[in-house]
């Protein structure tokens, strides 16, 4: 008898208790808290209810809020009009089993049937299927982790006992206010007919929730669906730096400061410069530029270098490589008039033949007046490619994985813009002297900007810049 009891204890521990501990404490295979600067996630269990869910939807609409409803299948069958309204008003619908019964007391096959039946009901009413699942009481069994296929288990970061009427509005409000911060996934109940709940408790929840939403609105917080919170969390995590990467970024920025001192880099009159430059001698083979002028070995060039702090900030705040590319192109476009002004007004630059740089921005550069050329094969091209790969792994939101995925596209090239074309196209004073109106100049630049943005929006590319 003792052995039987002991074996029952072991089985229950591994089947039910340990999976619950791992999912709740460590978040294993579940989503229970987000990372965000402004978003909060409201989730509601046990509904829909013909009365309270309708009132809740009215409240959410007043605040332009989106929420997630984990519905019990049998309740969804009874209230198809409410389910349809939830869906039509842009909220997310998830599964809360067909009946409100713990997974601890069901076989794995039974859990699957509960989920499938509820999914089919939701699909029949809304025309859409769902992959989001919250087990009743948040209790999972051992087989739920690998038995539910593509289903995403959603738990919560805070619950408030709102299914009990005796908690009262004021106490419930105080509990909610303690969780008034971004990233929270709040568990509330819009139906009081399940076992252990009070039928009138959702009325208290609605009053307390309205006060909570007013306070959130005052802080400019937003209420989003759980799938949106998951996407925001992924983006947020991609921007967090490990200790190693922080050290690499710090060393990289220190190197930039040393580079500026060693090579005497200068700024233009731009109050917020994106580029620095130095005047140097061109040592490559002769290059025919876009306006027909030829850059020869020994000519003076204005060598441009991207501000690494700005480049890093762009990478950390960008959603993708294309987004970085568009920002880089805009930065170049903003800087070119200042370079033109610098060449016109600075007598020390009177012999500069061209603007020169090494970059991975290939597409669209010609629309800005640059001619694009392959670097001569050799040590410089190899080292430049290695450096730019490291650079991209530091600044890009996806880091090394992006370098691996786009390794064949990481080809640095020289970009050259004739000084004469630079002054002709970008120096407004020169245009006025030639009889052109400022409005025409600005119009040409706007067309150029649209063309460049269209190029990068339609074609993924991997940009970079010299240090």
TrEMBL record:
Taxonomic superkingdom: Bacteria
**InterPro entries in the cross-refs:** Glyco_hydro/deAcase_b/a-brl, NODB_dom, Polysacc_deacetylase_ArnD, YkoP-like_dom
Q: CDD domains, from UniProt?
A: CE4_NodB_like_3
**NodB homology domain spans which residues?**
38-224
Which GO BP terms sit in this record? carbohydrate metabolic process
What Gene Ontology molecular function terms does this protein carry? hydrolase activity, acting on carbon-nitrogen (but not peptide) bonds
Pfam families, alphabetized: Polysacc_deac_1, YkoP
Point out the signal peptide segment: none
| Protein's UniProt name | Polysaccharide deacetylase family protein
Species per Swiss-Prot/TrEMBL record: Paenibacillus selenitireducens
